[in-house]
Amino acid sequence: MKSRFSLSQINWTTSLFLLLTLLGALVGTPIYLYHYGLDWFQVAMFLFYVPATAMSITLGYHRLFAHRAFKALLPVRFVTLVFGACAFEHSVLNWASDHRKHHKFVDDVDDDPYSIKRGFFWAHIGWLIVSLTPAPLENVADLKKDKLVMWQHRNCQLIAVLVGLVLPALLGFLWNGPVGALGGFLIAGLCRVVTVHHSTFFINSLCHTIGRRPYSKSSTARDSALMAFLTFGEGYHNYHHSFQHDYRNGVKRRSYDPTKWAIWGLSKLGMASDLRRVPAEKILLAEMAETRRQVEAPPAALLAAQENPVDCPKWQAALDAYQTLLERFTESYQELEVALADSVRISRKRLKQWRSESRRLLNQLALIGRMKSAAGGR
Ligand SMILES: [Zn+2]
Ligand SMILES: [Zn+2]
Question: For residue range 28-46, what is the model confidence (pLDDT) as tens digits?
Answer without folding.
Answer: 999 999 999 999 999 999 9
